[in-house]
Amino acid sequence: MKKIEAIIKPFKLEEVKDALSEIGIEGMTVSEVKGFGRQKGHTEIYRGSEYTVDFLPKIKIELVIADGQKDAAVAAIVKAAKTGKIGDGKVFVSVVEDAIRIRTEEKGDSAV
Amino acid sequence: MAVAAFSTASLRAQTTTNVPAATTTNAAPATTNAPLPAATVEQRLESVEAYFSNGDPTAPLKDTNGNITVTSPIMSSLSNSLGSTYTYPGAGHNAWLLTSTALVLFMTLPGLALFYGGLVRKKNVLSVLAQCFLITGLVTILYIICGYGMIFGGAGGAAAMKLDWIYGVVGNPKVCWMFANVTSAPNPGYSYWVSENVYAMFQMMFAIITPALIVGSIAERMKIKAILVFMTLWMFVVYFTQGHMVWGVNGIMNGCWNADAKIHGLDFAGGTVVHMTSGWSGLVLCIILGKRLGFGKENFTPHSIVLTYIGASMLWVGWYGFNSGSAVAADIIAANAFTTTTIATAVGSFVWPMWEWIVKGKPSVLGFCSGAVAGLVLITPACGYVLPSGAIWIGIAAGTIPWFFCYKVKGWLGMDDALDAWSVHGIGGMCGAIMTGMLARNAANPNLATFLSNPKLPKVYVTDSWFQPQLWEQLKTVGVTLVLVIVGTIVCAFITKVLVGLRVSEEVEMTGLDTTEHGEEGYHS
Q: Under DSSP, is residue B22 helix (H, G, I), strand (E, B) or coil?
């Protein structure tokens, strides 16, 4: 089993969710995060004070899938999340030791 | 707040021979046992007519010595703090002041609370709300015990005036101690038609919002204990004193009410009493307190401009009570004050973001809000004395001068006036007071002619020109105010520092005041 973590631009969430759904992946965990890479922040001005806001809001998607689905999932995410501009994000893939479905106590591939 | 009680109508009533035929048969102000004769219909009508011009309803009922010599249904059996009975309050005037009192309270709770609350970081939002409410209760208690008497007690007649600790400057706490004898009867020292208790409550709301404004300078780093101690001292040293000098019937700087004033200052609704005192105190305090940790390096963005916007809008609406209510009547002066307030505020709220647009490229919501508040501040001392055309100039100045102080001067000086109380209220109040001197016009307020064109005086102060003598009187008023406020604040701050300390510890400041000083969180995500 593999874990995919994808950091994407927030407005791309619906597209990525739909793209994964089309290849049969229905479950994921989503969190609102802040971060930056090469994309610079922006400046906010409040009366006389200027602040550079370095951190940009992003969405992190986490999913655990069977090994066989990994390539399709990564490709779907990258295609859906890409805008071609700096700040599109990154996808990370790591190995998962085990997965258990709480309701039925199934393990392994049948749990994801 | 200066008042329109000496209208031309009441002067006319005093000069005509209004001792009616009926009383001559009963001769002298005789035995107190003999019931007074009934007033004639004409006398009663003249009393009622005084309602419209905000004149003295008892004038037609008095003889040339000023004693009331007839009975009239307009006289109530309630006595006021002068110890005499008076007429019933006038419904319309009283109703407007009742409303205005509620409006001014609304300015603090929640207007100012939200305006300031939105500007601080999330971890300190509750501390601002708490400070505003704490000050409301604290000042009410001080005011009821002796504050009202110390500011306005001079109206307790010649006897009370003599009790001033420093005549015309510092009142006497024993006058109206524990709010004694402040009833629903009007006190003609301040208003012919508004109940004294209503007037006192109205003024109390001013006393409340003034220290609450100081919170803007010291936000996010002052101990709640220190605020309690400091504000208590400050009310006595600065507010009750300034209020007495400018608004007390015998105040030495009360130009439009006290013919014997030493400085003929004009301050209709509190440009000096409220804004200059709070703004300049804020400056002194924020310098003594020092800058917030991380100031200039960390991100101190306001946590909710939405709350600030809501608060600013509430301030505007509430301020109608503050400014127009300061006519202490629902009369022509209140009507003019309402108009000038609207114009200056709207123009200020337009000009400030225009400067931002020109200089920074974007008009901000905070700019709209700040421009409006600045407009309200600058028009405060002027609203009852200037014409609508004057209000336009004041609005332009409001959107420009405080903006410049926030945008540039504050950076040059380098102090941490967290929410710009000095730039907007201190500087704004001062500009408004000075512009009042330039823009006061006789056509706007008949009392100007009565008091400032009085033949007793060496010259005419309001000559309807920009550089009239009144401008110099305003500069003097501003000067005295600055000395009192700066020295007074330094003294109060150092006493507070010795007693309880001023600033929270570093750890408390980093964590935020809400959880550490109040045990609460503003938002739970």
A: helix
> Which tokens in the block code for residue B65?
């010595």
DSSP state at residue B54: T
Q: Any idea what the Cα angle at residue B225 is, between residues B207 and B174, rounded to 5°?
A: 40
- Separation between Cα atoms, residue B377 and residue B427, nearest integer Å: 10
Of A48, A51, A53, the CB nearest to B407: A48
What CATH code is carried by the domain that includes residue A47?
A: 3.30.70.120
Query: How many domains does chain A contain in total?
Result: 1
Residue of A nearest to B406 (CA): A48
Contact B14, B28 (CB under 8 A): no
Choose among A36, A17, A10: nearest CA to A77.
A17
* HSE-up (13 A, CA, CB side) for residue B240: 29
> Is A49 in Cβ contact with B420 (below 8 Å)?
no
Residues of chain B falling short of pLDDT 70: 1-33, 154, 156-157
CB contact under 8 A, B302 and A51: no
Nearest Cα neighbor of B336 from B385, B370, B301 is B385
pLDDT of residue B16: 35
Task: Spell out which residues of chain B touch residue A36, defining contact as CB-CB under 8 Å.
Answer: none
pLDDT at position B491 is 98
B407 chain-A contacts, CB cut-off 8 A: 47-48
pTM of the entire structure? 0.90
**Tokens 């205005």 sit on residue:** B100
- Short-list B308, B94, B132, B101, CA closest to B219: B132
Token readout for B129 is: 């709300």
pLDDT value of residue B156: 67
Which residues are A8's β-sheet partners?
A: A59, A89
At residue B83, the pLDDT reads 84
User: Which amino acid is present at A30?
Assistant: V
pLDDT for B297:
87
Closest to B151 (Cα-Cα) out of B203, B96, B112: B203
Q: What is the pLDDT of residue B427?
A: 98
**Domains of chain B, each with CATH number or no CATH:** 8-73 (no CATH), 91-292+301-517 (1.10.3430.10)
Long-range contacts of B136-144 (CB under 8 A, 24+ apart): B136/B105, B136/B108, B136/B109, B136/B208, B136/B212, B138/B228, B138/B231, B138/B232, B139/B204, B139/B207, B139/B208, B139/B211, B139/B231, B139/B235, B140/B204, B140/B208, B142/B232, B142/B235, B142/B236, B143/B204, B143/B207, B144/B178, B144/B179
Q: Which two tokens stand for residue A53?
A: 């806001």
User: In this structure, what DSSP letter does residue B174 have?
Assistant: T
Distance from CA of B352 to the nearest CA of A (A): 10
Domain that holds residue A70: 2-111
Residues 6+ apart with CB under 8 A from B505: none
- With an 8 Å Cβ cutoff, the interface of chain A facing chain B consists of 44-49, 51, 53
Give the closest residue to B127 by CA, choosing from B499, B521, B420: B521
